[in-house]
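Bench notes, afternoon.
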Amino acid sequence: MQRHFHNNRTGLGFLSWFVLLLGILLFYGCSSDKGKEELSVRHSFKADTLLVKSLELPSIRAFPGRVRSKVQVTLAAKMPGYVKDVPVQIGDEVKKGQLLVLVDDTDVKARINALYEQKSAAIAQLNGIEAKYEYAKINFDRFSRLFKEESATKDELDRARTQYLALKNQTGAIKAKIKAIDAQIKEARNQLSYLRIKAPIDGWISDRNVDPGTYVNPGIPLIRLDGKGAGFWFEAQVDDVLIDNVHPGESVTVVIPATDTILEAKVVHVQRSSQPSTHTFTLLSDVDSVGLKSGLFGRLFITIGKVTSIVLPESVIVRRAGINGVYVVDDNKTIHWRIVRLGRKWVKTESGFLPVLQDVAVTQGEGQRYVTVLSGLSQGEKIISSNLSQAKEGARLE
């Protein structure tokens, strides 16, 4: 009897525990459903949506280059000597006739002074002889008349003629000497001007290859000057495999980050022969634009084809712990955060999409950047495009 009673009590205890556990599960189940319902209501919000679709993008090659003046003047030394002064620096604006380089002119000046002294001595000698020459000429004319009148002998006439011709030749020689000295002075003055290298036009100093104390030889480039007001070209070295992709008269896109400039530039020159060492050819495009300066760095973009990809505004991308994602809206208007793999960034301009390079931080255009989505999204899906700070996993879109 005791054993039977013990078994009945054990069975009743098990049944009680089972009923209690079932009650707890039902209670928490109801509480969980109620909590989810409250959570869902709590995270309902309004936001704009964006339909995911593919766009046609340009397949673009970018090449570095620089802005250069359409008029460039290279000034070289015309005479050897030591440089005495270089009163300009790279970037200085200069006026026509302004001194750029002064080569030591001590020797030339000394030579000019010596020539002037020789000329003064020759002139003094000429002045002393000319009086005798005039007297000898008058005396010869007088004896010529007397000889015709048979009042003078032939010997007297010959002596007068000899004296006259001697002084005449001597006067002519001194005058020729003075003329030669004048020519030497003129040459020396020209040499003096060669030692003073001046700006032939208004412009900016774009390069300087000389310092005071340097010995220069004729023909050595010293200063390069970019003409002011002549306009600008953008010069880039392009891979020779693309030599048939661009032609004079066609348009290319040029980006100058320093001045926040994006412009369509017309190709004006294509060097048809490539450079063997770099396998590139030179391309010049016209970039006459306000604010540009010679030497500014930029990029030349050449379109070589088209590609189709999903492109989203960069502003809809949400980063979590370094992972990129977007908020996708399903058919029930429930929000889900989805990981996406991103590709190249773009900036939208009047001429279309341009890639954003790390060293060309372009902000000009519509002010919004875009990014290519390589995986994680499909066409036709909807994503949240505004009020992203309120979006949460599992929330509902009103």
